[in-house]
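Support request, please re-run this one:
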Amino acid sequence: MSILSLHDITKSFGLLDILKGISLAVEAGDSVAITGPSGSGKSTLLHILGTLDTLGSGQLEIEGIDPGALSEVDLAKFRNERIGFVFQDAYLLPQFSVIENTVMPVRAFGSVTEADREIARGLLSEVGLGEREDHLPGQLSGGERQRAAIARSLVMNPRLLLCDEPTGNLDARTAEQIADTLLRSGAGDDRALVVTTHSETLAQRMSRRFELRDGQCFEV
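Re-run finished. Output below.
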């Protein structure tokens, strides 16, 4: 069973057709880059994949489940448990420490246990922030904040990790480090990684690549 399956997905805003029948399948172990010019619909597609936006028509399944058939409450829980997100901005809460930001997805639907904190500590160590867990986001560099966001995205052990321009705000050296972290921590035999990016360097490091052109998606 594919982790992610799309069939003939469309999306329009008013009279503007953004996505015109997107079909693709993503398997466990895949690392996927979605590229295309500004305005081609990369972020729109990623938001649909992450159930943050509704599709116009077509069919989306995540691990064989149609998220459109879930109630609003069940969809929010499904998204929290099955999908991890990393955006261009880290969106860390400034008043909370790095480790408290990391466990925030756990807190969304329950209490944080010491076992949860140990998982978060392990992830922070994995992304190179083991000694920064008590720091506030304002005390971190841009690259460190993005690594904290990666740890947060993985704390629920999702099968699908979605990243929207994760290196877009970073210098070349830091972007390479974040790419290393994503491929080491976010990709694996039991999960899939999907990244939208303008970066040719990042796209070339993924195992598969799709390009959005004129509302269509082509594997290249």
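The two ends are 23 Å apart (CA to CA). The chain has one domain: 4-219.
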